[in-house]
Design brief:
4-stranded parallel β-sheet, 222 residues, 6 strands, 8 helices, Uracil-DNA Glycosylase, subunit E, alpha/beta
Length: 222
């Protein structure tokens, strides 16, 4: 797949900026040095392939990609089929099972069907070295994803931004347009899920907000 046309002009404009040139050079040098970088090169911008700009209805913000083999594929919280479901996603599934009637906990962690329904699944940092969490933080990705959020803030369609945890809440401060909505709470990670993520009912709340504006709800079952 390729970047959806609706995102193309924005991404090309970012790629022409100095920060992005330096970022690209850094990631390419890391790969060239024989380091294992996730996700694979062709999946780094997957979020922009599966969710066209004009169809973004919900935004989920993660931190950086999973750093274990075969996990990350460019969508936050999501892992490839056949890979063990990570703890944060397992907690999201638990919350979905108690929040959404009929939801059954899947045996895989691939959330591609969410992306295809208009859920932009955006990590703040889009690459990572194997086994080294946050290894590509402050390399330039934060500028790119901040610009993505500023661009989303300017979109005419109302968007629901789901901000879990302090990191996402801080990142979401650029969302200022009145027609957008913010849903926020604790992160689903095992460290904080018991502080209010469990029982937050954010998934049904998002669907309620979509319904109120006459938009189709998200089928959270994967």
């Amino acid at each position: 797949m390729a970047i959806d046309l609706s995102w193309k002009a924005f991404i090309q404009q970012q790629q022409q900026q100095d920060y992005f040139t330096a970022l690209q050079a850094f990631v390419e040098a890391e790969r060239a040095a024989g380091k294992v970088i996730f996700p694979p090169k062709e999946q780094v911008l997957s979020a922009f392939e599966y969710t066209p700009l004009s169809e973004v209805r919900v935004v989920l913000i993660g931190q950086d990609p999973y750093h274990g083999p075969d996990q990350a594929h460019g969508l936050c919280f999501s892992v490839q089929k056949g890979v063990k479901v990570p703890p944060s996603l397992a907690n999201m599934y638990k919350e979905l099972a108690s929040d959404i009637e009929g939801f059954t906990i899947p045996e895989h962690g691939n959330l591609l069907t969410w992306a295809q329904q208009g859920v932009l699944m955006l990590n703040t940092v889009l690459t990572v070295e194997q086994g080294k969490a946050h290894s590509h933080a402050k390399s330039g990705w934060e500028i790119f994803t901040q610009n993505v959020l500023l661009h989303l803030n300017e979109q005419p369609q109302p968007i629901i931004f789901v901000l879990w945890g302090a990191h996402a809440k801080k990142k979401g401060k650029v969302i200022t347009a009145e027609h957008h909505q913010i849903v926020s709470g604790p992160h689903p990670s095992p460290l904080s899920a018991y502080r209010g993520f469990f029982g937050c009912k954010h998934f049904s709340h998002v669907n309620q907000l979509l319904k109120q504006r006459g938009s189709a709800t998200i089928d959270w079952q994967v």
